[in-house]
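Re: the multi-chain job from yesterday

Posting the exact lines I submitted so nobody has to dig through the queue logs.
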Amino acid sequence: GAVVSQHPSWVICKSGTSVKIECRSLDFQATTMFWYRQFPKQSLMLMATSNEGSKATYEQGVEKDKFLINHASLTLSTLTVTSAHPEDSSFYICSASSGRTNLAKNIQYFGAGTRLSVL
Amino acid sequence: DAKTTQPPSMDCAEGRAANLPCNHSTISGNEYVYWYRQIHSQGPQYIIHGLKNNETNEMASLIITEDRKSSTLILPHATLRDTAVYYCIVRVSDTGRRALTFGSGTRLQVQP
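And the result, structure tokens for all chains:
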């Protein structure tokens, strides 16, 4: 199947600093990528939808100025957590679909996730 | 997307078949049944999907009832590495511009 690469896999940062997470589709072009957040023992919650060449769409309750999303190319989306605080500590996961129903019936491919710990 | 109901947890002995049920009684005619799983501290992984016919691939089999109101994911010979949370998701097959909605899933524990 298709591969989505997410980097870094684990990051520790001090409170107040910013952290950038990259999500790349390695063998297909993704006009749309998605960012999820997962707290311990909970399910994945959608944060935002990242659209290539346009502004991201954020879910209700997600601060767009805090979680900056850039989707500058068809293979790369980035999530920047600005001025991180301990409550932002979580597992962040991206996903992408090739968008071609004759290719893979809209299967979503997920990155391995990034565990963020804010001290 | 149609609502799905899954048992919160199941156990299975290693080497035996794991049968994970999913109820989706309000499924529409154009909605597919997708199964994903999430191994601890990893991103979800696609397993299989189907519309009305039973499907099989190298990972699993998907059995959908004739009325499509329920389905079963079958892992024929479960291994310890199959321990994970399994999510049943029902939705139309679109062009990938909508995110998946994850419920609570079934936590499968494969016992040695």
